UniProtKB/TrEMBL annotation:
Pathway: Porphyrin-containing compound metabolism; protoporphyrin-IX biosynthesis; 5-aminolevulinate from L-glutamyl-tRNA(Glu): step 2/2. This is Glutamate-1-semialdehyde 2,1-aminomutase. It is found in: Cytoplasm. It comes from Deinococcus piscis. InterPro entries: 4pyrrol_synth_GluAld_NH2Trfase, Aminotrans_3, Aminotrans_3_PPA_site, PyrdxlP-dep_Trfase, PyrdxlP-dep_Trfase_major, PyrdxlP-dep_Trfase_small. Pfam families: Aminotran_3. CDD domains: OAT_like.
């Protein structure tokens, strides 16, 4: 790895200065601006396998994977060829095309055991969760929804309430029991009830009191957006009980879908949701989201039913081709999941011992190819709630992050995010990462 010393970031810094003149904060999605870790974002010129090349020509070992989609690694030949092939036939039709059918058939084939019989494609995870909630409200005739503190489901108004991800790290977090963003009316936010992740008693109590008003409970089946949090069996049981109130259970698999297994976190953990939402991997690096479930529910969506939802670019042929190539590759090589898990487990072990040697308190959560190392003094695997995650020392993390980046390892630029391992991460990358991590912890210790 080349070492991207600050003076070697001249091109990125120049681009960032120009970007700030024409785009709010210089970025098109907040966490990219490095607000919580300091320093300037690297502009990326290209990406291949496990590596990014920044605009200054330095190579960076990538643990963001575009925040999840790039499970096969960047610029994967099968995905590139699928997109190139589709490109020859035009980029958008505004009429049905075969690739939409092929990708929908693939998703149904892979997730039928979860009850998925119909799937509708949209263009982002945000659209997927927004649409699934509209469907749940349309089917049940109820107005309220429940989400969990620190879970993130995209930036639709009703979901920007006690939300995770960038909301946990931007300077404008507005505080307790309130919208997480300006511009979300309190009246609208009031329709979103907030409960605590991994607190089955709190969810049971809320459902006892208000279950009859609640259209849906939406949740991250493994949380990535408060850092990684793994659901306890008791909490999963409480989630399944919400159905006793006629409430629909929506598993937001935007991050975990096709990542934690071919059947996502739901398949891995034995969750049986009524509706699922997807994004990221399902589009293979192009803008795709989707929602799906039983026919009896999904047929309420227009034009079959009265719940309206549409999109000019939905089912875009290039995006469908990229998603289909990605899912087909994952299906053809199921051993990839074992490989990803092994890598991430070895990374977790290496980080634990490196931190311990340096005397830096760290608590690692890892499941499959998702991992967060919380800078706090707690047993590994014991961070289960948003409140516990929030106790982390974000400034120690920031210093560690900057040291890793100076050494050419591009970790997620926030304490409250997951990193994502790809199939292109191998022994070389593991050793590079752990060497860098040992130095970064030693600098902190
Ligand atoms: N749900 C979850 C669980 C997510 O992690 C994200 C994005 N990180 C979203 C929804 C929103 O997806 P998008 O950014 O594609 O709108």
């Amino acid at each position: 790895l080349s070492q991207p010393a600050p003076e070697r970031l001249a091109v990125s810094e120049g681009l960032f200065a120009r970007a700030r003149q024409v785009t709010p904060g210089g970025v098109n999605s907040p966490v990219r601006a490095f607000g919580s870790v300091g320093g300037h974002p690297h502009f990326i010129a290209s990406a291949d396998g496990a590596y990014l090349t920044n605009a200054d020509g330095a190579r960076l070992l990538d643990y963001i994977g575009s925040w999840g989609p790039m499970i096969l690694g960047h610029n994967h030949p099968a995905v590139r060829e699928a997109i190139t092939g589709a490109l020859q036939g035009g980029t958008s039709f505004g009429a049905p095309n075969e690739r939409e059918v092929l990708l929908a058939e693939k998703v149904v084939e892979l997730t039928r055991e979860l009850g998925v019989e119909r799937v509708r494609f949209v263009n982002s995870g945000t659209e997927a969760t927004m649409s699934a909630l509209r469907l749940a409200r349309g089917v049940t005739g109820r107005s309220h929804i429940v989400k969990f503190r620190g879970n993130y489901h995209g930036h639709a108004d009703g979901l920007l309430v006690e939300a995770g991800s960038g909301l946990l790290t931007t300077a404008h977090h507005l505080g307790e029991a309130a919208p997480s963003s300006a511009g979300v009316p309190q009246e609208y936010a009031a329709l979103t009830l907030v409960s605590e992740y991994n607190d089955p008693a709190a969810l049971d109590a809320l459902m006892q009191e208000r279950g009859h008003e609640i259209a849906a409970v939406i949740f991250e089946p493994v949380v990535g957006n408060s850092g990684v949090l793994i659901p306890t069996p008791d909490f999963l049981a409480a989630l399944h009980r919400v159905r006793e109130h006629g409430t629909l259970l929506i598993a937001d698999e935007v991050m975990t879908g096709f990542r934690l297994s071919l059947q996502g976190a739901s398949g891995l953990l034995g969750i049986q949701p009524d509706l699922l939402t997807w994004g990221k991997i399902i589009g293979g690096g192009l803008p795709v989201g989707a929602y799906g479930g039983r026919a009896e529910l999904m047929e309420h969506v227009s034009p079959s039913g009265p719940v309206y939802q549409a999109g000019t670019l939905s089912g875009n042929p290039l995006a469908m081709a990229a998603g289909l190539a990605t899912l087909s590759e994952l299906q053809a090589r199921p051993e990839l999941y074992t490989q990803l898990d092994r890598y991430a487990a070895a990374l977790a072990d290496g980080l634990k011992s490196a931190a311990q040697e340096a005397g830096v308190p760290v608590s690692v959560n890892q499941i499959g190819s998702m991992l967060t190392a919380f800078h706090q003094d707690a047993p590994h695997g014991s961070v289960q709630t948003y409140q516990q995650a929030a106790r982390s020392d974000a400034s120690a993390f920031a210093a560690w992050f900057r040291s890793m980046l100076r050494q050419g390892v591009y970790w997620a630029p926030s304490q409250f995010e997951s990193i994502f391992v790809s199939a292109a991460h191998g022994d070389t990358e593991l050793n590079l990462t752990l060497d860098a991590a040992r130095r970064a912890y030693a600098e902190l210790g």
